[in-house]
Design goal:
The protein is of the alpha/beta class. The chain has 14 helices and 15 strands. The structure holds pyridoxal-5'-phosphate.
Length: 434
């Protein structure tokens, strides 16, 4: 074996034969129902979408990639129009930055600083982010994130970065405090740190619109982002939202921040843009920022495969399907249905803490003794006995099924997950209460 993989103790990777809908068929005949949308939650249209595959085939017969800086690929023009759609959020300028969310994050940071630099604010070098956030695995993105197992890199990452506490009502709202009061206090953390560093030194604040993978789908308390936006505007700090995980319709609105009615300066998207049919990412910004950048003659960032043509053809089909009010309404409805279902069955369970999220990005959080082991057992049982793949670890089950999941498929999977949760928890309580 000449492949170096990420996890060294996993020698039993399953062999895939083909994929279809929400299913992964293995060479040994086993069929797995994928509630994770591809482990990384990118496969938002599931697998084998015939329209997307036809678009890729057609494109492959014409050309597979032409350089983003030199040629005009019309699919990119149509894709940018589809992304912008009818939105009234002020974002009008799409920069296709590369293939991954990490690259989009880097591009957003560079575009933000170039904008400040061109506006005469050369000292605005600090970027603020939050504890427990994740923005990618390239150096710039790592400095913003807080994955504990990458902290050993910190000496390599001597950039001007500062973190404020995460935004997490379940963990950080004080007893007796209303959600609105918490939203304000939480946002104030940003203002305090800007004032401490000095507004002239702070360029941007970067946050996932709903805190995603590390803590498990935490939507903000109402008005949190409005407070943050006010603070950013007050000190000329760019608001950069990371929607690599929660963008492009996954929460039931095309952009997740549309729920919060704010106007960020930049938003970046990635894996859900090509949804596994293509590898493409983008940074979206305002005309005002575009014009400042244009004044310099060029945007100081580029990658070879930015706006990759085959990926653009795929992404165009994906986004045409997703950025549609009927499709988005269904995502919202199925997500609500699933959250209500879990709440109804489990809210009185002694391990229950919370079900939270938006659309088809949500988590069920629980608490019990030896939680990691409990999650491991739950994950294994659901997969091995019932062939359902979930993202079950630490303190939560994270639900990110393909957006095409039907209510019937959702109900069948939930019945199994819930009954397995109850079964294991009974033996768990006996084991730890004796
Ligand atoms: C919120 C968020 N930002 C950025 C990234 C990085 O994207 P990529 O893995 O495509 O580089 C991810 C990936 O999981 C993510 O969830």
């Amino acid at each position: 074996m000449n492949i170096l993989r990420n996890f060294f103790n996993n020698n039993t990777l399953l062999k895939v034969k083909r994929t279809n809908g929400c299913n992964i068929l293995l060479k040994n005949g086993r069929k797995i129902f994928d509630m994770t949308a591809g482990i990384n939650s990118h496969a938002i249209l599931g697998y084998g979408n015939t329209k997307v595959i036809a678009a890729i085939k057609k494109q492959a017969s014409l050309y597979t990639h032409v350089d983003y800086k030199f040629w005009n690929d019309e699919n990119l023009v149509k894709l940018s129009d589809t992304i912008i759609g009818n939105s009234k959020n002020g974002l009008k300028s799409v920069y296709f930055s590369g293939n991954s969310g990490s690259e989009a994050c880097e591009a957003a940071l560079l575009m933000s600083y170039q904008t400040h630099f061109l506006s005469g604010n050369k000292k605005k070098l600090y970027v603020i982010s939050r504890d427990e956030s994740y923005h990618g695995s390239t150096i710039g993105a790592l400095t913003l994130g807080d994955r504990k197992n990458t902290h050993f890199y910190s000496k390599n990452l001597k950039l001007k970065r500062v973190k404020i506490p995460m935004h997490h009502p379940l963990y950080l709202k004080k007893d007796g405090e209303t959600l609105e009061e918490y939203a304000k206090r939480s946002a104030k953390n940003l203002e305090s740190i800007i004032l401490k560093i000095g507004p002239k030194n702070v360029g941007a604040f970067v946050g996932e619109t709903i805190m995603g993978g590390l803590v498990g789908d935490v939507p903000p308390a109402q008005n949190y982002w409005k407070h943050i936006q006010k603070i950013c505007n007050r000190y000329n700090v760019h608001l950069i939202l990371d929607e690599v995980y929660c963008g492009t319709g996954t929460t039931g609105k095309y952009f997740c921040f549309d729920w919060d009615k704010v106007k960020p300066d930049f938003v970046f998207i990635g894996k859900t843009l090509g949804a596994g049919y293509g590898a493409i990412s983008a940074v979206i910004t305002t005309k005002k920022i575009e014009n400042i950048l244009k004044s310099s003659g060029r945007l100081q960032h580029n990658t070879t495969y930015q706006g990759h043509s085959l990926s653009a053809a795929a992404a165009l089909q994906v986004q045409k399907i997703v950025n549609n009010s009927i499709f988005l309404k269904k995502v919202d409805e199925v997500g609500k249905f699933m959250r209500d279902y879990i709440n109804c069955e489990l809210q009185n369970h002694p391990f229950y803490r919370e079900v939270r999220g938006r659309g088809l990005r949500f988590s069920f959080e629980y608490s019990c003794k030896n939680r990691n082991k409990f999650s491991e057992k739950l994950y294994n049982n659901i997969l091995e006995k019932y062939n359902i793949l979930t993202s079950t670890k630490f303190h939560r089950i994270c639900f990110t099924p393909p957006l095409i999941i039907t209510k019937k498929e959702a109900e069948r999977s939930l019945d199994i997950i819930i009954s397995e949760f109850i079964k294991i928890s009974q033996s768990w309580s006996n084991k730890y209460n004796n």
